[in-house]
C-alpha cells in the first residue's frame, strides 16, 4: 500500500496583474557618439517598462516592445499566450532584467534635455518624466523573439523578420543584447525606484518541488508525491526553463496513475455469477481503492482479469501451479444482463471463459439468476487490473527526449539542419522564443515549409479542387508558408476540419519530398474517422488524376491497432477462423478493413481480401510479386527474410491446410514469421494511422521513426501534449494539427478527484487536496499549446453540416471571433433537410412557436418544471428521472408520427448517472430503445440528424461541470437538422443576463468563458422558442430520495 504521508508541498504562486510605465528609449546616434536620439512609442512601435508576476513563475521587471501584426486575419490568426482563446493583434518581445543583477539610477530632465526632447511628450510637462539608467551585470532574458510574425506592413515586418534598423536607429538584435539602457520614463524618481523594487518573494525563482530528474522511477515517485501534496497548479504555456516544463508534462501523467497503480489490488474482491460477476469489496476497502478500481475499469477497452481460488497443476505456460485466470469486461447499466440488479457498492463484470488452455476447463460456482445468487455464499476472487503504466511511461520518455542529445525521429538525421531544428523546438516549447538560439547561431533562420513545393501542377490542382471553394485560395496561401513547418487548422463544428486534413494527408503522400507520413488522433474512434475520410478523399483524387491521364498509384493507408491483436486476427483469417464480433463481450476497437492484418493478407494473396493489382501502391505490389515467387517448388527468394514467409504464402494460397500449418510449425515460428512479414508490409505504406499509444510499439514505431517525414494530427484539441511528443519527437518535421480548441480538452482520470471525498466519515483520511496537482495542465492540448506559443492559425469560416440557423446560437455564444467571415454554405439550405422541416412543422402545429425567418431552422428549449436533480449518496454523478421521463414522453409520439428512425436521434447529457437513467427509461418504449443515449464527452466528433441535450442542472451554482464552455460547445453542435434542449430556463434568471456567472471550479482549470451558458440562455429567451413541460412526481417520488 502506498504511503499515507500527507506533507504540504510547494504552494502555487498566483499571478499578479501587469503593471507598466510608458517609456522611450534614448540611444546614441550611430555616427555621432555622445549625441542622443530617442525611440518613442507610436502606432508602429510601443515601448513600456513592465512588472509582472506570472503564475508559478519568477516575477520580473523588463522592457517590452510591442508591434502590430497583420490586421487581415482571413488567412492567419494569432492568439495570446494565456490559456483563454484571446485573439492577439500585437507581438510582444520582452527583455527581462535579471533580478538582483541590475542597478538603476534616475534623475530629472535638465532644461536642455527638456527642450530637446519636448517632441517626445507633447501633451505632458517635463517634470512628469525622469531619465532612468539601467545597468545589467549579466545578459537579460528575452521572450517572444523568433516566433512566427507577419507585420502590419513591410517596414514592421522587416524590423522583426529581417533585423532591419527600427526607425533607422538600432537593430532589434542589437537592442536586446545591450546591458545598459537609458530610458525616458513617465514617472517621478520615487515612482521609478518603487517600480524597480524586486526584493519581494515573487521575485525569487520558482520550482514545483519535484527535482530535476524526470526519468521514469516509481520508487522516486512514491517518495515525492505523498510528500508534495497541496493545492492544484494552474496551467501555463510559458515556463522559466525546461525543468519547469518537464516537471509539468511528466507529473500531470505520473500523478494520474501513481495513486491508481499503488492502490489497485490492495484488497480482495468477492462474489461472482457465471456470466455476470458482482464484486463486493469488503473490509478496509478505502475510498482510494474504489477510486483506483473504478479508474482501472473506466474506458472502452480497459483490460482486466479475475483469478479464482483454484490451482492449475502443470499449466501450459509454467511448471509451477498457478491460479485459474479469466478475462473480464466491465458491464454498465444499459446492459440487459444487469437489469434490476442492485449495484450499490458493487462492481459489475462479465466473465469470459478462455477459448483454449487449461483455464477453460474450470467452471466456477454459478447461479441461474440474480435472486438466487445473492443468497449464495460469497466466493473470493482476485481482481487484477492494468493501470496503464506502460503507456504513461512512454509519455514520460517522450518528454525527456526533448533534452536528450539524440535525434528522434531518426529519419530527421538526413536533414542537414537537424541539430539546429532540435534545439529550436526545445526552446520553442519552453515558451520563451528563440533568443538563446539566435545568440548561439546568429545566422540561423528556420526555413519555411511549402506543402506544394515539388508537387506537380496536376497533383496540386487536383487536391485543391477538393477544398471547399470558400477556403481554397486562403488554404493555398497559408500552406505555402508554414513557419517551422507547422500548420494549425482550427474551426467550429461542421466546417470541414477533417475534410481539409484528409486532403492534406493525400497531398503529402503525393509530395515527392514526403511520400510517407504518420497520422494520429487521441482516440481509436477519431483515428478511424480520419483514416476513413483520408482514404475516401485519396481514392477520389487518385481517380481524378488517373482519369485525366496522370500516372499515379492508389495510396496505401494503414490503420494500425495493437500488434498482438493484428497478428492473432491475421492468423485467424489464414486458418479460416471467424473474427469475434464487437459487442458487450468484446469491446476491441479493431476493424478489419485497412487494418495491418487486412493489408498483410492482400500482400500474401489471400482470397479473403480484395486482390492487389499493378495500380496499387508500388512498394506493396512489388512485395506481393516477391511473395508470389515463393509459391513454386523452387522458390526464388529476393530478400534474406522472405524464405521464412514460405509457409504463410502456402497457407494463404491453399497449398497447405490449416492443420498441416499448425502441426508443421511451432508457435514461436508462426509468430516470428507474421511479425516479420507485417514489418515489411508496414514499410510499404504511404501513411500509417494509430493512436499515440500504439505508435510506441513496432512495427509502427519503426515506420514513424525511420520513414515518416511528416505528421498529421486530427482532433488535436483533445490530445495531451505528451501524446503529441510521443508521435512527433524532439526534432521537428512538417506537421499539421487540426482540431477545435474550444471543444473538450484532454481529460485526466484524476480530473475531479479529491483525496478526501468519501462515502462516509470512516473513509476520510486525507486533507481536502487534489489527487493530481497538475490536472489543470490538461487544459492545454497539443493544438492549443502551439496556438498559445504564437503559431498562426488557419480558420475555416463556412458551416457545411448544420441547417441554416442552427449554428447561430453558438456563433454568438462561443465563436464570435469568426463572425466577420462566417457564412452558411449552399449545402445548408433548410430545403435540403427534409427531416428538420418536418420537425419544425410539428413544433409549430403543437406549440405555435415563432420562427425568425422562413429560411432558417432554430433550436427549441423545453423548460422542464418540477424535475429535481437527484444524486446517489455514494456517487457524485447527477441524474434527473423526471426530466428523462419528460424527454421519453415527448419523443415517442413525435418519432411515431413523423416516422423518425432511432438512428437519426442521439440524446446527450453531462452525467453518466443521467445517461443510465435515460437508457433505462428509453428501454421501456419500443420506438426509443435503439436511440443512442450517451454522455456529451463520449459523443465528441460524432453527429446525428436530431440531437437532444438533457442538461440535468437546476441552479447556476451547481452547473460548473455541465456549463463548462467546451462541454457546451460539443453538446450544442452535434446536430444536422434539429436541436432540442431540455432543462430549467431559470438556471440563470432573466434579470441576471450579463451578470450571472457560472462558478469557477476550485482550482487547476482555466475556462474559456464562464459566461457561455448565460449567452446561450439569453439567445433562447430572445427566440421565444420555449416549450413548458411538467415532470410527473409519480414517476420519481421525492420519498425515494434522502432529504438533503
TrEMBL record:
MF terms (GO), sorted A to Z: 5'-3' DNA helicase activity; ATP binding; hydrolase activity
Positions of the DNA2/NAM7 helicase-like C-terminal domain: 791-984
SUPFAM superfamilies assigned: P-loop containing nucleoside triphosphate hydrolases (SSF52540)
Highest taxon listed in the record's lineage: Eukaryota
Gene3D superfamilies on file: P-loop containing nucleotide triphosphate hydrolases
Keywords: ATP-binding, Helicase, Hydrolase, Nucleotide-binding
A matching Pfam family: AAA_12
CDD domains tied to this protein: SF1_C_Upf1
Record's protein name: DNA2/NAM7 helicase-like C-terminal domain-containing protein
Organism: Fusarium vanettenii (strain ATCC MYA-4622 / CBS 123669 / FGSC 9596 / NRRL 45880 / 77-13-4)
Amino acid at each position: 500500500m502506498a504511503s499515507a504521508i500527507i506533507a504540504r508541498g510547494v504552494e502555487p504562486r498566483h499571478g499578479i496583474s501587469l503593471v507598466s510605465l510608458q517609456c522611450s528609449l534614448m540611444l546614441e546616434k550611430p555616427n555621432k557618439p555622445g549625441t542622443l536620439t530617442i525611440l518613442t512609442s507610436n502606432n508602429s512601435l510601443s515601448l513600456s517598462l513592465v512588472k509582472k508576476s506570472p503564475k508559478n513563475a519568477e516575477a520580473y521587471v523588463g522592457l517590452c516592445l510591442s508591434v502590430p501584426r497583420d490586421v487581415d486575419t482571413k488567412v492567419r490568426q494569432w492568439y495570446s499566450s494565456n490559456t483563454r482563446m484571446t485573439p492577439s493583434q500585437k507581438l510582444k518581445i520582452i527583455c527581462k532584467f535579471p533580478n538582483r543583477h541590475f542597478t538603476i539610477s534616475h534623475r530629472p530632465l535638465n532644461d536642455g534635455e527638456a527642450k530637446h526632447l519636448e517632441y517626445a511628450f507633447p501633451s505632458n510637462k517635463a517634470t512628469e518624466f525622469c531619465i532612468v539608467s539601467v545597468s545589467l551585470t549579466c545578459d537579460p532574458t528575452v521572450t517572444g523573439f523568433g516566433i512566427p510574425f507577419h507585420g502590419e506592413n513591410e517596414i514592421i515586418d522587416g524590423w522583426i523578420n529581417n533585423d532591419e534598423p527600427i526607425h533607422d536607429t538600432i537593430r532589434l538584435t542589437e537592442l536586446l543584447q545591450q546591458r545598459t539602457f537609458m530610458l525616458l520614463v513617465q514617472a517621478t524618481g520615487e515612482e521609478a525606484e518603487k517600480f524597480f523594487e524586486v526584493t519581494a518573494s515573487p521575485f525569487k525563482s520558482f520550482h514545483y518541488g519535484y527535482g530535476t530528474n524526470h526519468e521514469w522511477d516509481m520508487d522516486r515517485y512514491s517518495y515525492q508525491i505523498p510528500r508534495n501534496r497541496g493545492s492544484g497548479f494552474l496551467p501555463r504555456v510559458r515556463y522559466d526553463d525546461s525543468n519547469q516544463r518537464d516537471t509539468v508534462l511528466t507529473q500531470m501523467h505520473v500523478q494520474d496513475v501513481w495513486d491508481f497503480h499503488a492502490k489497485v489490488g490492495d484488497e480482495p474482491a468477492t462474489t461472482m455469477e457465471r456470466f455476470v460477476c458482482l464484486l463486493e469489496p469488503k473490509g478496509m476497502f478505502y475510498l482510494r481503492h474504489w477510486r483506483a478500481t473504478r479508474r482501472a475499469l473506466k474506458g472502452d477497452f480497459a483490460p482486466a482479469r479475475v483469478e479464482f481460488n483454484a490451482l492449475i497443476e502443470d499449466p501450459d505456460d509454467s511448471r509451477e501451479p498457478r491460479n485459474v485466470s479469466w478475462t473480464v469486461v466491465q458491464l454498465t447499466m444499459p446492459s440487459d444482463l444487469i437489469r434490476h440488479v442492485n449495484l450499490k457498492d458493487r462492481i459489475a463484470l462479465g466473465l469470459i471463459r478462455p477459448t483454449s488452455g487449461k483455464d477453460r476447463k474450470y467452471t466456477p460456482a454459478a447461479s441461474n439468476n440474480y435472486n438466487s445468487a445473492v443468497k449464495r455464499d460469497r466466493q473470493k476472487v482476485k481482481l487484477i487490473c492494468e493501470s496503464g503504466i506502460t503507456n504513461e511511461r512512454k509519455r514520460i520518455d517522450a518528454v525527456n527526449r526533448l533534452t536528450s542529445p539524440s535525434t528522434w525521429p531518426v529519419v530527421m538525421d538526413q536533414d542537414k539542419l537537424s541539430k539546429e531544428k532540435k534545439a529550436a523546438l526545445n526552446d520553442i516549447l519552453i515558451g520563451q522564443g528563440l533568443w538563446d538560439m539566435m545568440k548561439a547561431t546568429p545566422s540561423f533562420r528556420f526555413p519555411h515549409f511549402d506543402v506544394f513545393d515539388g508537387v506537380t501542377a496536376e497533383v496540386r490542382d487536383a487536391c485543391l479542387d477538393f477544398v471547399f471553394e470558400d477556403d481554397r485560395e486562403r488554404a493555398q496561401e497559408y500552406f505555402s508558408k508554414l513557419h517551422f513547418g507547422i500548420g494549425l487548422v482550427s474551426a467550429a463544428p461542421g466546417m470541414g476540419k477533417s475534410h481539409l486534413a484528409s486532403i492534406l494527408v493525400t497531398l503529402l503522400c503525393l509530395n515527392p519530398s514526403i511520400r510517407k507520413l504518420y497520422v494520429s488522433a487521441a482516440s481509436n474512434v477519431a483515428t478511424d474517422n480520419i483514416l476513413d475520410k483520408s482514404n475516401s478523399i485519396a481514392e477520389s483524387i487518385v481517380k481524378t488524376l488517373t482519369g485525366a491521364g496522370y500516372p499515379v498509384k492508389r495510396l496505401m493507408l494503414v490503420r494500425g491497432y495493437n500488434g498482438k491483436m493484428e497478428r492473432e486476427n491475421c492468423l485467424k483469417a489464414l486458418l479460416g477462423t471467424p473474427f469475434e464480433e464487437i459487442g458487450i463481450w468484446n469491446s476491441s476497437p479493431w476493424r478489419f478493413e485497412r487494418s495491418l492484418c487486412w493489408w498483410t493478407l492482400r500482400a500474401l494473396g489471400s482470397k479473403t481480401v480484395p486482390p492487389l493489382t499493378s495500380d496499387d501502391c508500388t512498394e506493396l505490389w512489388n512485395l506481393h510479386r516477391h511473395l508470389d515467387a515463393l509459391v513454386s517448388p523452387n522458390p526464388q527468394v529476393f530478400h534474406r527474410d522472405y524464405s521464412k514467409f514460405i509457409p504463410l504464402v502456402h497457407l494463404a494460397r491453399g497449398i497447405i491446410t490449416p492443420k498441416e500449418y499448425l502441426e508443421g510449425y511451432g508457435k514461436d515460428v508462426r509468430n516470428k514469421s507474421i511479425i516479420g512479414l507485417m514489418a515489411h508490409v508496414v514499410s510499404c505504406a504511404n501513411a500509417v494511422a494509430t493512436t499515440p499509444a500504439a505508435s510506441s510499439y513496432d512495427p509502427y514505431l519503426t515506420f514513424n521513426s525511420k520513414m515518416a517525414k511528416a505528421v498529421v494530427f486530427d482532433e488535436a484539441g483533445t490530445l495531451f501534449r505528451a501524446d503529441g511528443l510521443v508521435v512527433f519527437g524532439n526534432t521537428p518535421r512538417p506537421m499539421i494539427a487540426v482540431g477545435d480548441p474550444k471543444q473538450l480538452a484532454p481529460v485526466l482520470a484524476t480530473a475531479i478527484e479529491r483525496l478526501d471525498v468519501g462515502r462516509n466519515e470512516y473513509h476520510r483520511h486525507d486533507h481536502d487536496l487534489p489527487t493530481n496537482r497538475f490536472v489543470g495542465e490538461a487544459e492545454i492540448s497539443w493544438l492549443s499549446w502551439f496556438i498559445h506559443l504564437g503559431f498562426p492559425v488557419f480558420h475555416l469560416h463556412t458551416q457545411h453540416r448544420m441547417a441554416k440557423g442552427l449554428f447561430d446560437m453558438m456563433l454568438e455564444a462561443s465563436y464570435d471571433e469568426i463572425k466577420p467571415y462566417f457564412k452558411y454554405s449552399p449545402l445548408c439550405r433548410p430545403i435540403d433537410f427534409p427531416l428538420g422541416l418536418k420537425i419544425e412543422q410539428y413544433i409549430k402545429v403543437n406549440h405555435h412557436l415563432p420562427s425568425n425567418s422562413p429560411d432558417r431552422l432554430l433550436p427549441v428549449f423545453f423548460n422542464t418544471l418540477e424535475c429535481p436533480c437527484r444524486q446517489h449518496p455514494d456517487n457524485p454523478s447527477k441524474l434527473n428521472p423526471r426530466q428523462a421521463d419528460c424527454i421519453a414522453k415527448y419523443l415517442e409520439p413525435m418519432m411515431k408520427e413523423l416516422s423518425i428512425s432511432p438512428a437519426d436521434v442521439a440524446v446527450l447529457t453531462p452525467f453518466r448517472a443521467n445517461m443510465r437513467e435515460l437508457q433505462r427509461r428509453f428501454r421501456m418504449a419500443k420506438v426509443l430503445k435503439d436511440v443512442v443515449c450517451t454522455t456529451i464527452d463520449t459523443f465528441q466528433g460524432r453527429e446525428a440528424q436530431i440531437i437532444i441535450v438533457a442538461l440535468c442542472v437546476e441552479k447556476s451554482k451547481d452547473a460548473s461541470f455541465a456549463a463548462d464552455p467546451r462541454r457546451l460547445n460539443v453538446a450544442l453542435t452535434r446536430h444536422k437538422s434539429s436541436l432540442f434542449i431540455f432543462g430549467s430556463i431559470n438556471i440563470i434568471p432573466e434579470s441576471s443576463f450579463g451578470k450571472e456567472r457560472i462558478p469557477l471550479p476550485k482550482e487547476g482549470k482555466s475556462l474559456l468563458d464562464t459566461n457561455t451558458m448565460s449567452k446561450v440562455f439569453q439567445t433562447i429567451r430572445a427566440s421565444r422558442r420555449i416549450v413548458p413541460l411538467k415532470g410527473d412526481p409519480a414517476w420519481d417520488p421525492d420519498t425515494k430520495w434522502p432529504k438533503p
